[in-house]
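Aim 2, interim progress: modelling of the cytidine-5'-triphosphate-bound target.
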Amino acid sequence: MNDLHNGGPVVALVPAAGRGVRLGESMPKAFVAVGGISMVRLAVDGLIASRAVDRVVVMVPAEFVESAVALLPPSDSVRVVIGGAERTDSVRAGIDAAPDASYFLVHDAARALTPPELIARVAAELRAGHRAVVPALPVTDTIKSVDAHGGVTGTPDRAGLRAIQTPQGFAADLLRAAYATDVHATDDAGLVELLGTQVRTIPGDPLAFKITTPLDLLLAHAVLEGMDARTS
Ligand code: CTP
Ligand code: MG
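Predicted structure of the complex, ligand included:
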């Protein structure tokens, strides 16, 4: 799959073991279809199409292993393992399933429409020697900090803020070290930051948005329909 063989294998870890509570469908979010194809399949297809990934490990709920295997491309390069209760538990399961990885790309199944080109750019930055790389977009809303009662406590300068996407890329030893600690962060790069490692941002892509709510799902459907209309 990978065009750039120097430096050891790039393994993509795809957390797909969440329940999708905010989406509110009857099945876990990664198994919900967009344009007739499950999000987890779309995400894996995007990783393969990037030509920057050697292997893919997908983490799913225990009772969905068989359906995931049936949904995903039949390939020795794609493996399904059981995820965990929290996203970090799922990523840890993926790390443990790929002891030979030189680089990891951690990529949410819920970012199903991520362009392969963005995935390839993250991998290229890793190959160029950056040890932690995340896609970032400027923030368009004003962000405020608030106290427990909703009172505003501050307004950070928006120019210095970014919304972070996946895939997040790491030198494998760095991500393993981050997950060996017992600290908590809302994303993988957050764990790496706590080790004191500089995380590099590269320009993200609006299409890498996370499908979280019913409105996001509607948007994803509309995006795919728009793409089909242009290519047919
Ligand atoms: N994820 C995971 N294991 C978990 C929780 C989340 O692998 N225990 C995955 C999800 O499947 C998703 C990604 O992490 O692809 C981002 O999480 P999120 O968008 O929060 O998805 P869910 O946890 O499924 O959604 P919700 O929080 O609304 O229940
Ligand atoms: Mg969640």
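The two ends are 28 Å apart (CA to CA). The chain has a mean pLDDT of 95.
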